[in-house]
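Recall from the previous lesson that a structure prediction takes nothing but the amino acid sequence as input. Here we apply that procedure to Protein NRT1/ PTR FAMILY 6.2 from Prunus yedoensis var. nudiflora. The sequence below is the only information supplied.
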Amino acid sequence: MSCTVADAVDYKGFPADKSRTGGWVAAALILGIEICERLSTMGIGVNLVTYLVGTMHLPSSTSANIVTDFVGTSFLLCLLGGFLADSFLGRYNTIAIFASIQTLGMVALAIAVKLPQLRPPLCHATAASNNCKQANGFQMGIFYLALYTIGLGIGGLKSSVSGFGTDQFDEKDDKEKAQMAYFFNRFFLFISTGTLVAVTILVYVQDEVDRSLAYGICSISMFIAILLFLAGTRRYRYKKSSGSPIVQILQVIVAAIRKRKMTTPVDANSLYENSPEASRIDHTDQFRFLDKAAILAQGDFEERNAAGSSSPNPWKLRSVTRVEEVKMMVRLVPIWATTIMFWTAYAQMITFSVEQASTMQRSIGKFQIPAGSLTVFFVLAIMITLAFYDRLIMPLWKKWNGQPGFTNLQRMAIGLVLSTIGMAVAALSERKRLSVARAVGGTTKTLPISVFLLIPQFFLVGSGEAFIYTGQLDFFITKSPKGMKTMSTGLFLSTLSLGFFVSSFLVSIVKAVTGSKDGQGWLTDNINYGRLDCFYGLLTVLSVINFVVYLVCARWYKTHEQDPPASQMTSTTAKANGSSAEDRC
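The prediction returns the following tokens.
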């Protein structure tokens, strides 16, 4: 048994043999499908606004909202994908099914942008932009169908890729646990690599060669990645799910509501507990209303078999440990809510900032930089920041403070600060661009101002993502119950989703409040006549307020943070006892 993984099986359902399953070979096949997913997602997202404005002839604010709604919905669907993976399909089947759905969506989008019947006629060079014919309902309907098919695939795929990757390593084996830490680093590296290829090569193909060809490349790469993923079926380790965390949370809430009129015992030992002693979580006094779910009452048990043995009805009675797991998730909510604002600022980097770039000089010699490719500085900022943090900040911080690096809460705080500064810089850059537009006339297609003026805002927000993404991932995985890791990962990804939805909401509100009868306002159809700098200023003010609230929530969380369960505290001893047997494998 020492040469098998206790909580994993192979594709035949037998205990997983360490020498034949899992490890880096299996993880690499899973990472391959992630890099293709990111290639497709960012290849669409960063340059879609230029297609909607330039080809479909939609207003800039409408185009920005379409992009943010698409990205937001994709990440929100991660919750659905996680629920299906935990409750019905399993992670392997979820990845295979939703990767196929995403591939079909990419094929449909490539066809939609290729056929002339599915886009409006071109504008004449002498025609005013407001006389261009917008895409009709049928054309937009086909476009939305393809786009949200891709979004459905992204949501289901992304919810399970990281979890299935970590399933390939045994946490009880010190060697494999160390490899798992490298997996997270390489997982983020693959995401960044996919993004880098998308915003450089893929965006160039879209703008200078053929957009449908670029989407076709994404379709083919996804198809190849699926084949490679399926080829590793015999190599993977599969872990059985303990059920949907959403259902478990609902059971505690329903049980507590049913017993809302009952008095909670003063002595916590009177509450129901049936979890194994090694995995129990000590009772806490916080959120005492939920403790009612663990009060013993008549009718809580139901007969299971003819022998008369019984077990509690999970919708009427839950153990203290299950209640405390829900409390741990509730404690995450304030931090979750106050990190959404970062992704609202992030959304501007792939919408309005790209549109800004499209109006500026982008030439280096005879080479014309595609507007969407400017986000390469965003990706470079992430990579540079991660390298700088890993090689310089962490060693210095360890010497000075004795810690191996910033805590997850500190990293998230740094990310929020950098994004706030980024929005302030973006406002100043836009004010400069608008002054040039007014001087030469707003109808000028290319303004006499370098696109490199926008680099600082991309670098600041990109560096912020390097801190907040790793901080959020670490926080939501390590501070959640062991049985709710998928749920907490979905919670983290939902901050990205809601950040984009908040961006769409703010754009709609600002356009309604600042607009006038002639269509002018902060966010106009032609950004040269608007006040995008004021919109960025609004985001800066909201980010400052959000950061103050975050500091309060972080302090509250540290005050009420619970010690790890006994099972986690004793895991080192358990590993030490079995280390010699594991070494023989």
